[in-house]
# Entry
Amino acid sequence: MPLLASLDLGTNTFRLLIAKVTDSTTLVPIVTKRVIVRLGKGSDRNGSIQPHAFEKGIKAIKNFSHTINQHKVEKVFAVSTSVARVAKNGDEFIEKVLEQTGIPVRIVSGFEEATLTLKGIFSAVECNAHKSLLFDIGGGSTELILTEDTIPVQIASLNLGVVHLAESFITTDPPTSEDLSSLRINIKHMLQSTDFNNNTLNPIKDISQSSLIGTAGTVTTLAAIDQQLEEYDPQKINNYCLSLKAVQGIYHLLSSTSLAEKKAIVGLEQGREEVILPGAAIVLEIMDYFNFKHLTVSDAGLLEGILLDAPVAD
# Structure
């Protein structure tokens, strides 16, 4: 089995996975690393990745490259998502990564990001439902994927990223009721603007027929907070059932505490304090809009999907 690496260079977080790929649906993780870079921070001001974030991102990839070299990885597959798609200097960032680390990075569309995420999720999450709605909340966008018997039938990429939402709507610390109202209204309007509608998934009467599955940092962090995990454990995250009531309670806690107070919340990853609230708001609005009372959490997603889709994994 070849030793491969994937890089997910997101708007908020950069992640590394080194794994052995056994077939197109199974991999064995060897090393996982993540660092909150906030590459998209401030990019709304002039449409560009800001110098500090630019340099921080390059430094993070250099550190990943060192780890990759230590493990004698056979091949590296790297993708960048929302911020690189839209930033004026997104291509410049990708070129600098190649120049300084030798790692080629592919900018993927929202559609491709969603399909890769789907592969990753179903490699780790048990799903017996006929129809499922999957979502991936990122720093710059949120992807929705409707599946039937795990096959994608509808995909949407929304301009709902936690970095941009935090910068646009959270004006005070802690946020005001006006901030929170504007945030939730914006998210709801974005959901209503998609091809998805609240008839896409009928009101849930039988969980064996329909399910909601969430992945990425916001959702896994909510699951860690709900379990009060002092140390993050993917095995306790994958397939964890997160109730609407639990998400509502965590959202209330997050919306009523300052950034300094959030640092004391057990399960909240250091560096995620500024963006976890808008992320939780997205989860709540998705659950409300599509009438779900529970969601299944997946630690696996885009990072795993990249490797499972790689040519050498065929």
